[in-house]
Design goal:
Strand content: 5-15%
Shape: globular
Number of helices: 8
CATH class: Alpha Beta
CATH architecture: 3-Layer(aba) Sandwich
Radius of gyration: 19 Å
Helix content: 40-55%
CATH topology: Undecaprenyl pyrophosphate synthetase
Number of domains: 1
Largest sheet: 6 strands, parallel
Order of helices and strands: HEHHEHEHEHHEEH
Distance between the termini: 35 Å
Bound molecules: farnesyl diphosphate
Length: 254
């Protein structure tokens, strides 16, 4: 750690740090195209940033880091790009598993994991299994993830339980609904970061980001460095969160 890193960490107020940071890692394709490269080069450089941002998030005390790595809509991309992304995920997991273990980080995958190709899925499930006893930062990879699909699967499970008589309709409230989402048991994201300048949610954590603070940066994901993450956390610490209430009558987040 350099002296300047130490100084910046001291500036971040741990009481005002986001517990859960979720990131829409956008702009890989455009970043590569600007350099006259194939889009997949952007994803390869983006994977390097994934490693650095995980390390930095852990270092500055973020409790849950959620990365939007592959959406339900991304299955419509050219097959070569999908294969390249799956290969990068596979290589990441094989190379970084030990680092996750060494840093007490627990990995989870959120999404329709059954759609991930068998070989990559086996490595993913194995990494989730070996890191499951870890008690440090929770790292979520959103894979084949869609916010609408998440809400649908939760609704289907609840409906099945009502139909079988295990649950009363009146027992369905916000807390129970949250329990049936992929993010069950986690705090909602305090801060959602989107790289590459677009002001869109893109089917990410639709239910969970009801009261998230949103930080959009023009920086493309392959250029997003640890200092950018610290800057986003610093901006978050300056925000006044009211959760729909007035300044005087604020409630604590769930
Ligand atoms: C969006 O950029 C990014 C993705 C669809 C993939 C994100 C994947 C990675 C960063 C690497 C693999 C991840 C892990 C977890 C190892 P885009 O291609 O939509 O960019 P564009 O908007 O410029 O076209």
């Amino acid at each position: 750690m350099s002296i300047s890193d130490t100084a910046e960490v001291l500036v971040l107020d741990s009481k005002k740090m986001p517990r859960h940071v979720a990131i829409i890692m956008d702009g890989n394709g455009r970043w590569a195209k600007l350099r006259g490269w194939h889009r997949t080069m952007g994803h390869a450089y983006g994977t390097q940033r994934v490693k650095e941002i995980i390390r930095e998030a852990d270092r500055i005390g973020i409790k849950v880091l959620t990365l939007y790595a592959f959406s339900t809509e991304n299955w419509s991309r050219p097959s070569g790009e999908i294969e390249a992304l799956m290969q990068l995920l596979r290589d990441y997991l094989l190379k970084e598993r030990q680092e996750l273990l060494d840093n007490n980080i627990r990995l989870q995958a959120l999404g329709q994991i059954e759609r991930i190709p068998t070989e990559v899925r086996a490595i993913l499930e194995d990494t989730i299994e070996v890191t499951s006893p870890n008690t440090g930062m929770l790292l979520n990879f959103c894979l084949s993830y869609g916010g609408r699909a998440d809400i649908i699967q939760a609704t289907q499970r609840l409906a099945r339980e009502v139909a079988s008589g295990q649950l009363e309709i009146s027992q369905i409230d916000e807390a129970r609904f949250s329990d049936y989402l992929y993010t069950s048991g986690m705090p909602d994201p305090d801060l959602v970061i989107r790289t590459s300048g677009e002001f869109r949610i893109s089917n990410f954590l639709l239910w969970q980001m009801a009261y998230s603070e949103i930080f959009v940066t023009d920086t493309s994901w392959p250029d997003f460095e640890p200092s950018h993450l610290r800057a986003a956390c610093e901006a978050f610490s300056q925000r006044k969160r009211r959760f729909g209430q007035t300044d005087e009558a604020q409630r604590k987040p769930l």
